[in-house]
Amino acid sequence: MISDFTVLRSALLQGRTTVAAALAANQERARSHACRHAYTYLEDSLAAPLALHRPLSGVAVSVKALFDVQGWVTHAGSKVLREQAPAISDALAVARLRAAGAAIVGQTHMVEFAFSGVGTNPHDPTPAALDGLWGHDPGEVYVPGGSSSGAAVSVASGSAWVGLGSDTGGSIRIPAALNGLVGFKSTASRVPLQGTLPLSTTLDTACAITRSVRDTITAHEILAARRITRSPAPLPAWRLAVPRDVMLDDLAPAVAHGFARSLHLLRQAGADIVEIDLPELRELPALNAHGTFSAAESFAWHRDLLALHAADYDPRVRQRIEAGGRMSAADYLHLQRNRQDWMARIDRRIAGFDALLSPTTPITAPLLSAVAPATGDDPALDARRDAAFFTANGLLLRNTSVVNMLDGCALNIPCHLPGELPMGLMLWHGAERDDTLLALGLLAENCLLGNAVRQGAQPACPLSLPD
C-alpha cells in the first residue's frame, strides 16, 4: 500500500514500478466516482518526465484554477473569466513543480475567486468530501472545504499526490482538515505569487495539500526554492502552547474530544504543552470592524468586472467582495497600522514557544445539502441554506484566519480515528517559523498516526503499487 509519494518515489527508483504505470493509476483515479467534480479540466494524457532523478518525477500534481497554466484558461472558479484567453505561460509555482518533474493532472474546482472556506460554487458541481472514502456512507455528501476544494479531493481520491492551492484565510488547511490530509500554509513571502489571480495581496499564500508531512516538506522546498533546516530534536525538547482564547470556543463535541485526545497522546510521548492566555485573539472582530484586507483588496481588483458582470457572480461571493467598496482609504490604512501593532504584541507573547496547538476548525464538515447554493426553486429553503452557509463559513475560517492576519505559518495534521469524520490539529506560529513547524509536524504526525493505525485506520484512499 502506498501512503505518500515518498513511498512511490522509492518504488520508482528501485524499478518496482514505472512512471507511466504510476501516472496511469492517477488518471484512473481522476475519473473515479470518488473524484467526480474535483476537476474543471483534466489532461487526456500525462507526459512522463525524462529524468527519474528529479524529486517529483512520476508524481501527479493538481493545480487550483487561479494559477496560470500555459494553454489553460485561469478562470478562478468564475463564470465571468471562462471566455478569456488561455495563459501564455505557467505561474512561477507551477513552473517550479514542472521543473522538479511533476506531471500536471488537471485544473481543480475552487470556490469562486477563492472567497469562502466551505467549498461550494454555483457554477460547478461541488466535489464531495468522504464520498465512498474513510468507510463513510456514500449517501452522506459533505462539503470538501474551501477554497481549495478540488485540490483536497484530488489528493484524497488518489488522482494527485500534491494539490497546489492557495491560503488567504485557511483555504489550504480547511479542506485538508475536512478530508483527512496534510495542509501547510507557509510564511506568505516564501512562495512567489507571480501568475496567480489574487484575492488579497496582503494575505494570499501559495502552498499545497499532500498525504504526509514528509511529502509536504518536499513540496514546500520546491515551491519556495529553498532547503528547510531539519532538526533531530525529539518531541520532549520542544515547548508547545495551547491558547485558551477564541481557538477553543464553541467546539463541536467531536472536535473537542479529538483535540483533547491529541494533546493527551502528545503529552504521553513527552511533549511539554502548557495552556496560555492570548487575549489579543479576541481583538480581531474590532480590528476588522470597518472592513477586511480580503474585501478591500478583492474589490479593488473586481470593481470594473462587477460593474459589467455583477449578475454572473456567486451571490455569496459578490456580497463579500462588494463589502470592500464600502471601506474608506482611511479605514484601510488604519487596519494596516493596527495589524502591525497587533502582530507585534502577539509575537512578544508567544516568542518563548516553538509552536502553538489548536483545532484547525471548530467543526467537522457540514452536509452539502445544508449549505448548497441557491436554486431559486424554493426561496425559503435558499434563505435557510444561505444562513447556514455563512454560519459554517465563519466557523471554518475562524481559527485558520488568525495565522494569516499574523503573517504566520501553520500546518494541519489529521487527528481523527476510524469511524470519525476527519478533523485536524493545527500547529502554528508567526512568520519565518516554517522549518520549526515542519520538524515538529513530523514528530506530531508520527505520534497521532501511530495511535490511529493501532485503532485500525486506513488511508483516505488506499492505493496499490502500480505494476
Written account of the structure:
Residues 47-438 form the Amidase domain. This is Amidase. It holds the Pfam family Amidase. InterPro entries: Amidase, Amidase_CS, Amidase_dom, AS_sf. With 467 residues, the chain is α/β, with parallel strands linked by helices. The protein folds into two domains: 5-281 and 346-454, Alpha-Beta Complex (Amidase signature (AS) enzymes); 284-330, no CATH class. Helices cover 37% and strands 12% of the residues. It is built from 14 helices and eleven strands. The chain has an eleven-stranded mixed sheet, sandwiched between helices. Helix 3 links the parallel strand 2 (60-64) and strand 3 (103-108). Helix 6 (213-224) runs antiparallel to helix 14 (434-454) and helix 9 crosses helix 10 (315-323). The relative contact order is 0.15. The mean pLDDT is 94.
Brief digest:
The protein is an alpha/beta fold and 467 residues long. It is built from 14 helices and eleven strands.
The main sheet comes to: 11 strands, mixed
Give the tally of β-strands: 11
The CATH superfamily of the largest domain is: Amidase signature (AS) domain
Shape: globular
The CA-CA distance between the termini, in Å, is 13 Å
Please compute the radius of gyration using only Cα atoms. 21 Å
How are the strands of the biggest sheet laid out side by side?
1-3-2-4-6-5-10-11-9-7-8
> What is the chains' assembly state?
single chain
Percent of residues in helices: 25-40%
Protein name: Amidase
Domain Amidase: 47-438
